[in-house]
Amino acid sequence: MSEINVFDVSSLYEPTTPDGLWYKEIAVGQDAIGVPSPRVDFCLVAVSAPDMTSHHLYMYGGRDLSNNFYDEVWVLSLPAFVWSRVYAGESPRFSHTCHLVGNRTMLTVGGVKKLNQMRGSGYPVCDWEEKSVGILDMSGVIWGSVYHAHAPIYQVPSQLLRVTGGSSSGNATIKQPPNGFSDQGLGKLFGIAPTSPTLDDKTKSHRTALIAGTVCDVVGLAIFSTIIWLIVRQIKQSPGHSDEPVFEMDLVPDRNDAPVVAAPSNVNDVQPSAA
């Protein structure tokens, strides 16, 4: 999952680019662990620093085609385009959904942890009585069983500050990938002023536009492309501070270690009800 494709949704409305514009960037790993291995049936949510200077895609769970199952939380931080593994457990989950709830909570629903929980036409059988709902505080990267309806705004976790610079409240100092943006057009979307291209740069850009990228996980690529253009759209529409700097997208389906959560009812802390 090192190759990330970014779609500029606003380009669809430009007369010169009626088919829209795609950009490609290569993501790297924060440490020796590298980037996530190819996988499917994971889920994603996206959230931004309070001042919108960095954006973070949380990916949870999934499986690969060799029957390896994952209980991991990875974060792709933008505009640095760096992957960080912030959690690794021993209770895998796949075919679940993720939801951004409140300011900083990732709520996971459904899913299974074993292939033998799949039946019929390949549809998963949700083990509702065992583990329907999982709750992750994305600021502390802590799984729990209580949903805090009035939790504070999202803060960038300490594990990601090496990637973004700045502080937990934002003020990111790292505003581009380690080797710079491979396409100046993408850099411009993230506020990096383009430099005068050389002849070699023009040749590379033309070649990139003509050659389709090779991705080890097509499903993952499509999903990341969709969520990233949502972030790009927010950047374009909100040049200043936003009171709603977070995004959510349900894609593929929940964690297996947390109990079922009841909907909050005019209280700050709601205890989940047993399934």
Main features:
single chain; 275 residues; alpha+beta; six-stranded mixed β-sheet; four-stranded antiparallel β-sheet; 17% helix
- Looking at the structure, what is the overall shape? globular
The chain-level structural class is alpha+beta
Task: Report the uncertain regions.
Answer: 198-223, 241-270
Share of helix among residues?
10-25%
Task: Give the SSE map.
Elements: E1 3-8, E2 21-26, E3 28-29, E4 43-48, E5 55-60, E6 72-78, E7 82-88, E8 97-101, E9 105-109, E10 118-119, E11 123-124, H1 128-131, E12 133-137, E13 142-144, E14 147-148, H2 161-164, H3 184-189, H4 199-210, H5 218-237, E15 246-248, E16 269-270
Parallel strand pairs: 3-7
Antiparallel strand pairs: 1-2, 4-5, 4-15, 5-6, 6-7, 8-9, 9-12, 10-11, 12-13, 14-16
Structure commentary:
The chain is of the alpha+beta class and 275 residues long. The protein contains 5 helices and 16 strands. The protein has helices at residues 128-131, 161-164, 184-189, 199-210, 218-237, and strands spanning 3-8, 21-26, 28-29, 43-48, 55-60, 72-78, 82-88, 97-101, 105-109, 118-119, 123-124, 133-137, 142-144, 147-148, 246-248, 269-270. It has a 6-stranded mixed β-sheet with strand order 3-7-6-5-4-15, covered by helices on one side. Strand 12 (133-137) and strand 13 (142-144) form a beta hairpin. The longest helix has 20 residues, at 218-237. The protein is globular and about 50 Å long. Mean pLDDT is 76; it is low at 198-223 and 241-270.
